[in-house]
Specification:
Length: about 800
């Protein structure tokens, strides 16, 4: 130690020592700045910054050494061997490049320190190579112990310098690393110089490839200037880079704090590097509780507080493994009753960025959308889609010895209620029906609304047909019970069709189709009942579809004819009018009865076209008859739903020239059941135009008398069922007597339908019935026979 102090104080020029120290400090500052630039870069840019850093640091080490050597005055003149001097510079740069490469390319602190140790070793390599370049007339020897100390000092302080520089790029760490690197170079140099022992040898000559001290001064001065210039440029670049980084940091901070998502960045060890306020808020933690923490520790704390249900170690290990493997992962976790979607995106170096999004409302919205997609909005029952899924599921899980029943339900005459009382009442009725249905079935069964007034049930886990029978009977009974809705008491029936699996089908479409066919049979059998599917129903449905196709084609081919049946005045036995009746002259099947196709035409809406056809033709034919003969045309309830009904009647009258008083329109009570106010408005408008209105099939409904109060009918027609039983049932005679008496009191014409014999006619004449029609007088005949029916009182024999 004494020798080192003696060397430093007595054998060196302090002015040059100070200059060397200043150059060393500037070079170290530039090297540390470039070190941080290299760490921030990637790929080829990083290699370029490491190379520049190695050149600055190596050059600084070299310049410091030779400036200090110029300050060294051992008492003998000397020079420097050029090749060895250059070799020392190469050693300084090359070894420093290796050390910097190690420290820059890792965040692991032991490896960063190892790189600094290599740099310290480079200082030693440069120094002792440079000493070999000293060419003086003396023998040089070394104190081995001091040499060892000098090398250790360079390695220790070099390791500490890069260790501190690797912690962060803060000003304090940068200054500390600069000082440590300067100490590493200076301490090594002057300790090593204290190990030098010179023995004068006047016979030793200076070599020819040597550079004199004056020239060496110029070289070192040039190197110092270059280092200072590089240091200044590096400082400027660093300042600009930090300014840009600062601006970018402001932008980044603003973006992070305004994100709707929480964001957190982790290093390869799972340590939190940065996060935004949203992330801290989601975890309900302060910045101090998160900054620099390991994710594993945070998870364990949450588990201890009951805020994490999983295994922290297993979860953390999986995330780290996925990040190091470059795999993006997505998890949904629960935090304080909220659903958080966590997406972990890997980064280079093994770290990852995690985004945290509160998807509670989104999940609730998705669940709501999914519910809406599979449930009926009005009744909240499963819709057709969910019903189909439940039926498929039921078929998959059904055991071989179990039957699965499908029940299709249709409310009887719901449309009449909906039209007459309004859609709000109809909707309320459907809701109550849905609740009653749901209360009747088992917990494993499914009730669905398929649309309109159509419902369906899947009955699971039953092994006998009797179970479906019991359920269907209970449904008919429960649905038929009265409803109290908005001061209205409503009674409605239900028709049910039933199919069973496996005998009636093994897939949902087949079972639904067959249950629907059974439903049609239940409706045809009088409604308010249930029917099981039978094999023949499919054939009848096929026949119905063929009939509908033929019906549409018949309209195009004009296969329909209008026949007329006379209506006679009972007192005078004179024809006063004809009723127009539609007939279908099928090219293969001949004349088809209206009973076979009128219901189908009403269901399909074709009755509107057929009704207009009859109306136009009847008016045109009647216009050719005597002026005192009228014509009666039936109107279907479906026609009253057409907005063109009044226009059609007016057009038929105007185009034919028939007087409105000669046209009589017959309606049934079912017409008045639907939207009665609108229907009555239409009837009043038609009557105001001079058209006569008659109420057909009087006495068969529940409200016949009330309708006589609501509209001034010109005629009431007594249903044929009462006429046919005149001789056998006293109540039929009493009804006819009451109706004819009512007609006389109100001034309304009464017409008896279905008169087939003289006895019936005589009884009707005795009771004061105004008119009669039936086969006693004639069956319906073509328009060409009207003249004959006017001349001959009765054509029964030839009917």
């Amino acid at each position: 130690m004494y020798q080192v102090l003696y060397c430093l104080t007595d054998e060196h020029d302090w002015r040059l020592v100070a200059l060397g120290g200043a150059v060393c400090l500037l070079a170290s500052a530039a090297a540390i700045s470039l070190f941080h630039r290299a760490r921030a870069a990637h790929g080829g840019a990083r290699v370029a910054w490491i190379t520049l850093d190695a050149a600055v640091a190596g050059g600084g080490i070299w310049a410091t050494h030779f400036i200090a050597m110029l300050a060294y005055g051992p008492g003998a003149a000397g020079a420097y061997d050029i090749p060895v001097t250059l070799l020392s510079l190469i050693f300084a740069i090359a070894v420093t490049f290796i050390g910097l490469s190690i420290s820059v390319s890792t965040t692991r602190r032991p490896l960063v320190a190892l790189g600094g140790a290599v740099v310290g070793g480079g200082v030693a390599a440069m120094h002792y190579t440079g000493m070999m370049a000293l060419d003086i007339p003396a023998d040089i020897s070394w104190a081995t112990g001091t040499v060892t100390v000098s090398i250790v000092l360079g390695i220790i302080f070099g390791s500490l310098a890069l260790f501190v520089a690797g912690r962060s790029d803060s000003l304090s760490d940068a200054l500390g690393a600069t000082v440590l690197l300067t100490v590493a170079i200076v301490s090594h140099h002057f300790t090593a110089m204290g190990a030098v022992q010179l023995t004068p040898d006047p016979a030793r000559a200076i070599g020819g490839l040597s550079i004199p001290p004056a020239s060496m001064s110029f070289l070192t001065a040039s190197a110092a200037v270059a280092i200072i210039a590089i240091a200044l440029v590096a400082a400027l670049l660093d300042r600009r880079a930090k300014g840009e980084l600062g601006r970018q940091q402001v932008v980044l901070d603003t973006a992070l704090e305004n994100m709707s998502q929480g964001l957190c960045m982790f290093d390869s060890e799972g340590k939190i590097l940065l996060f935004n306020e949203r992330y801290a808020a989601m975890l309900r933690r302060s910045d101090m509780q998160l900054t620099g923490r390991l994710l594993l520790d945070v998870l364990k704390e949450e588990q201890a507080k009951g805020q994490w249900n999983g295994d922290p170690d297993q979860f953390f290990a999986r995330i780290v493994e996925d990040a190091r493997g470059g795999r993006t992962t997505t998890d949904v976790v629960k935090r304080f009753g909220r659903s958080i979607r966590v997406v972990n995106q890997p980064m280079q170096g093994g770290g990852w960025v995690a985004t945290f999004e509160d998807i509670t409302e989104w999940l609730e919205a998705q669940a709501k959308i999914s519910h809406m997609a599979r449930h009926d909005a009005l009744t909240n029952l499963p819709n057709r889609m969910l019903f189909h899924e439940r039926l498929e599921q039921g078929l998959r899980v059904a055991k071989a010895n179990d039957q699965l029943a499908v029940l299709c339900l249709d409310l009887d005459h719901f449309k009449d209620i909906n039209d007459s009382l309004g859609h709000p009442i109809g909707d309320a009725l459907l809701q109550q029906v849905g609740r009653r249905l749901a209360a009747c079935v088992g917990e494993n069964d499914t009730v669905a609304r398929l649309g309109g007034d159509e419902f369906a049930v899947v009955q699971l886990g039953r092994s006998e047909e009797a179970a479906a029978t019991v359920l269907a009977g209970r449904l008919v009974e429960v649905i038929s019970a009265p409803y109290e809705i908005a001061d209205h008491q409503i009674v409605i029936g239900v028709s049910i069709g039933i199919s069973l699996s496996p005998q009636d089908g093994s897939n949902p479409d087949e079972l639904l189709k067959n249950a629907d066919l059974a439903l049609y049979r239940a409706k045809a059998d009088g409604r308010g009942t249930y029917r099981f599917f039978e094999a023949g129903m499919d054939a009848r449905a096929q026949a119905r579809r063929l009939l509908e196709m033929d019906l549409r084609a018949a309209l195009q081919r004009s296969e329909f004819e209008v026949h007329y049946q006379p209506i006679r005045d009972v007192a005078s036995d004179r024809v006063v009018a004809f009723e127009a009746l539609l007939r279908w002259n099928h090219p293969q099947r001949g004349l088809i009865s209206p009973i076979s196709f009128i219901p189908l035409a009403e269901e399909t809406g074709l009755i509107v076209q057929l009704g207009e056809l009859v109306l136009r033709r009847a008016c045109a034919d009647a216009a050719t008859w005597p002026d005192d003969i009228g014509v009666a045309v039936n109107l279907s309830p479906v026609q009253f739903k057409s907005p063109n009904l009044i226009a059609s009647v007016v057009d038929a009258l105007e185009s034919s020239g028939l007087a409105a008083r000669r046209l009589e329109l017959e309606i049934t009570e079912s017409v008045l059941l639907q939207n009665s106010e609108a229907t009555l408005a239409i009837l009043h408008e038609l009557r105001a135009k001079g058209v006569r209105i008659s109420l057909d099939d009087f006495g068969t409904g529940y409200s016949s008398l009330s309708y006589l109060r609501s509209f001034p009918f010109d005629k009431i027609k007594i249903d044929r069922s009462f006429v046919s039983e005149l001789a056998t049932r006293e109540d039929s005679m009493a009804i006819i007597r009451a109706v004819t008496g009512l007609g006389r009191s109100l001034g309304i014409v009464t017409t008896a339908e279905g008169v087939e014999n003289d006895a019936q006619l005589e009884l009707l004449r005795r009771e004061g019935c105004t008119q009669a029609q039936g086969y006693l007088f004639s069956k319906p005949r073509p328009a060409s026979d009207v003249a004959m029916m006017l001349e001959r009182p009765r054509l029964r024999a030839s009917a």
